[in-house]
Write a structure and sequence with these properties.
7-stranded mixed sheet, 4-stranded antiparallel sheet, single chain, 11 strands, about 110 residues, globular, mainly beta
């Protein structure tokens, strides 16, 4: 069993930054890669970024060069650093490992 808890969302102006955290618990969590997904109102959930348990990363084209995914294995936490935020980044952001999902954290980019 894995539990994922996201935090760090909020309201930010265009061009601003936020850092999301995904704290994982469960002994098997460390075996999994982790992904960040997002879902905007009226849209399907989409992949934002992934990181394997050995540190390989992958990004959606829409966030390349602006977002950075990283992990702290000692804390069993995965981060998503989001810079140069745009209104179209507004969504609920979810953390995922295998079949497990967090509850989501709202990110709103607006002036």
């Amino acid at each position: 069993q894995v539990q994922l808890v996201e935090s760090g969302g909020g309201l930010v102006q265009p061009g601003g930054s936020l850092r999301l955290s995904c704290a994982a618990s469960g002994s098997i969590s460390r075996l999994y890669g982790t992904g960040w997904y997002r879902q905007a109102p009226g849209k399907q959930r989409e992949l934002v970024a992934t990181i394997t348990n050995s540190g390989w990363t992958n990004y959606a084209d829409s966030v390349k060069g602006r977002f950075t995914i990283s992990r702290d294995n000692a804390k069993n936490t995965v981060y998503l650093q989001m810079n140069s935020l745009k209104p179209e980044d507004t969504a609920v952001y979810y953390c995922n490992q295998a079949q497990y999902w967090g509850q989501g954290t709202q990110v709103t980019v607006s002036s």
